[in-house]
Amino acid sequence: MNLDGNMSKNIDNTIAFTRVDDFQGQVTKVSLYYMKQLEKLLDILEDMGFPAIEIGVQNKCPLLVFLDKERKTAFAIAPRVEEKD
């Protein structure tokens, strides 16, 4: 099944919509504006020849997009954590 031209880039089935029955992880809200800034950064990194990136997430800490192998420089997006009542 080929839904669009980009589906052929996903031959390993590593990205898709899925059903989530029992999520036990942390939930955070990230501004769409910040996510669009991340998208711009990812486009730049792709143009620079980066084949992949490392992303770090710790409980209640920023989402980190590491820019070096030593993990000393990163693009960070601070989360807004919603606590369960």
Features:
single chain, 85 residues, alpha+beta, 3-stranded antiparallel β-sheet, two-stranded antiparallel ribbon, 19% helix, globular
Summarize the entry for a quick read.
By secondary structure, the protein is of the alpha+beta class. It has one helix at residues 32-47; strands at residues 28-29, 54-56, 63-66, 74-77, 80-81. The protein is built from one helix and five strands; from the N terminus they run βαββββ.
Walk me through the structure.
19% of the residues lie in helices and 18% in strands. The protein contains one helix and five strands, in the order E-H-E-E-E-E. The protein has one helix at 32-47; strands spanning 28-29, 54-56, 63-66, 74-77, 80-81. Strands 2-3-4 form a three-stranded antiparallel sheet, with helices on one face. A two-stranded antiparallel ribbon has the order 1-5. 0% of the residues are buried.
H-E order: EHEEEE
- Number of helical regions: 1
Percent helix among the residues?
10-25%
What Rg, in angstroms, do the CA atoms define?
A: 16 Å
**Total beta-strand segments:** 5
For the record, give the distance between the C-alpha atoms at the N and C termini, rounded to a whole number.
43 Å
Structural class: alpha+beta
Low-confidence parts lasting 5 or more residues at pLDDT below 50?
none
Overall shape: globular
Strand content: 15-25%
Describe the largest sheet.
Answer: 3 strands, antiparallel
Mean pLDDT: 81
Oligomeric organization of the protein chains: single chain
